[in-house]
Write a structure and sequence with these properties.
Strands 4-3-5-6-7-8-9-10 form an 8-stranded mixed β-sheet, with helices on both faces. Strands 12-11-13-15-14 form a 5-stranded mixed β-sheet, with helices on both faces. A two-stranded antiparallel ribbon has the order 1-2. The mean pLDDT is 93. 32% of the residues lie in helices and 27% in strands. With 265 residues, the chain is α+β, with helices and mostly antiparallel strands. The termini are far apart. It folds into 2 domains: 136 residues, Fructose-1,6-Bisphosphatase, Chain A, domain 1; 105 residues, D-Maltodextrin-Binding Protein, domain 2. It is globular, with a radius of gyration of 19 Å.
Amino acid sequence: MPRSTGPRRAPTPSLRKILSVAHAAALAGGRRTLESFGKRLGSETKDDGSPVTAADRASEREIRRVIARTFPDHAVVGEELGAKDGDARVRWILDPIDGTKSFIHGVPLYSVLVGVEVDGRPSVGVIHLPALGETVEAAVGLGCRWNGRRAHVSDVSHLADATVLTTSVRALEARSGQFQRLAAATRTQRGWGDAYGFALVATGRADAMVDVGLHIWDTAPLLPILVEAGGRFTDWSSEPTILAQDAIGSNGRIHEALVQLLSDR
């Protein structure tokens, strides 16, 4: 008789199914944030100096609840509630409020981020902007969508015509010393930051986003979203990775020019 090899693992779910759950989870977390948005909020300061509110934690708990309803055995890591071990083939990476400073001040440019790695590959991403009623989402091979319609990056091909975004001019200047050159080389510069800036690039409303001081929960959804929208997401050495602490998301056409400009000393 053949030997028993133990319990058989369930097959890895399709990316379409994972994206559907990621979408539902991001919207559920977003609804929880709206219960507090625009109100006077208390916050704590974490060890890294960033703020956190009760709404951050409530949003992450809700996101995890929705994921566990369908995929109770998957691994999860979140900015506020840490890591949950599970089936390492699929790992969910959560930022319940990206842009907490905006959220605290009643600025609607914060987002809920859900990224998913499948077999170690960034495969699914959702940027949900609850206060704006916008969702940008993608899965590898399935394209990028913005509120249900196909999203695509811009066709700007020269830095001189580009609109480039960043979260913090001060942080960017401290990291590279090249902000003035970046400003001189591009048409328009704006501080529409955090994941909102990357969402604008993926939907063709801006041409590039340059950011610094990132963590994996900030970046996990961005690579599949930008690539499926026809653009690029890399670190400053042009490597496509969600481990980037400093990153560029662009329409692809101006990407290498930005990499070169930021790396020049």
